[in-house]
Amino acid sequence: MTVNQSQILTIVKVGGAVLEDEASLSSFLDxxxxxxxxxxxxxxxxxxxxxxxEKLNVESKMVEGRRITDATALDxxxxxxxxxxxxxxxxxxxxxxxxxxxxxxxxxxxxTAQKRPVQQIDYGFVGDISKVNYEALASILSLGITPVxxxxxxxxxxxxxxxxxxxMASAIAVAMANIFSVSLxxxxxKPGVLSNPDDDKSVISVLKPESYQSFKDNxxxxxxxxxxxxxxxxxxxxGVKQVIITSASSLDINTGTKIML
Amino acid sequence: MTVNQSQILTIVKVGGAVLEDEASLSSFLDxxxxxxxxxxxxxxxxxxxxxxxEKLNVESKMVEGRRITDATALDxxxxxxxxxxxxxxxxxxxxxxxxxxxxxxxxxxxxTAQKRPVQQIDYGFVGDISKVNYEALASILSLGITPVxxxxxxxxxxxxxxxxxxxMASAIAVAMANIFSVSLxxxxxKPGVLSNPDDDKSVISVLKPESYQSFKDNxxxxxxxxxxxxxxxxxxxxGVKQVIITSASSLDINTGTKIML
Lengths: 261, 261
Hints:
2 copies of one chain form a homodimer.
Chain A: E1 8-14, H1 17-20, H2 22-34, E2 38-43, H3 46-55, E3 62-63, E4 66-67, H4 71-95, E5 100-103, E6 111-115, E7 127-132, H5 134-141, E8 146-149, E9 152-154, E10 160-162, H6 165-176, E11 181-188, E12 206-207, H7 209-217, H8 225-237, E13 242-247, E14 257-259
Parallel strand pairs in A: 1-2, 1-11, 2-8, 5-8, 11-13, 12-14
Antiparallel strand pairs in A: 3-4, 6-7, 9-10, 13-14
Helix pairs in contact in A: 3-4, 6-8
């Protein structure tokens, strides 16, 4: 198999509750495997790391939804994201006939990052992405492999870094847009971005910068959804063809929220 | 880069105390990076798994030096071997200029195994290797990547399995002998197989089946060294060109113990 610029590549990011429930995960992976064309899966795993921290009597320190990653927390996310979640997902995909392989940003030097500078908050071993090695990712795809990427990067000097999975997916999508026609799909336990959090039928079908601003102003879109949508706009501005936020159980790009410039 | 049968490939297995001490590991990795030609690193990590089990108040059940792997123990080795040890090693190799990537047997369907049948002892989720996908490993090498392999396999039906790292290294060496001229190096904290465990200068320079039998009969070679040497003879019988047991700090194939048929 060879790759060329007209080929469609889909980056799918899955996180949260979907990863924690075996039935939800299996159902999502069935949809993922059935999804046509070349694809890359990016996963989170936040709550699993929190659970392991609790069992180890290590306090999970969060500021504005972001984990403060000291050396112990880094070991925990390396174990949970890079080991448990990543390898279980790969084994499950193999069983479903998808030739997956798990990677972090350190593997094949795929994603380098810089430790976030200390300003008001010291986030610890958290990495802000500096480069995605899209040639290396393309070489894996050219072997017929579906990469499964854990939200860990490295600084090139031996230091692993914890990196937000939504941002990873966006950065990978942007870099891969150099050589593919890229779609980015954020999927989670809801059917899309909702105008009423209690009504799963209230999916906002199209979100443009103006309507996004108004939903934010009204407090309808808030907290964890904001960086996801901000990452979506950045991806579109930098050459990604389409961004959809949709349900992990359907992975249906027609029923979710389409982000548009 | 292309690969061909006359090319030399070295499989290096490292384990035990070397992995636990940061200075020993770094020194070993320097030697590994400097080692010429194509290479694959296979690592263990047993004591790190035991340490995490202790922190989680999970009892490590061992029978004859082998871990009994129930579901909780499997999660622990998946986190420690597949996550912590594997990714830290990859990040350290990247920092030393070696383009490494970490894998388990599930990734790229590299190594399939069968859950060990229950006889006198139920070892739990322990895998006996059925197939090494040497074409896939060769395809990674052909990208200029140095594989770093954690001692985990899968059964192809979604189940990860814990597999002895010495056996993994031997099975990989045998499979790769189909397309390369393969050397297998077991390295650890001692300079080789010793005739006197208290004297590091007592390295047995050559070990053949007859002398091995006599050392075993006299109790000089015992416990963990026996499966390592048994694996070495199997590798040689199945086409591996040379097997050496030597020091991780020197990785010197001339000063260790050479296993010969």
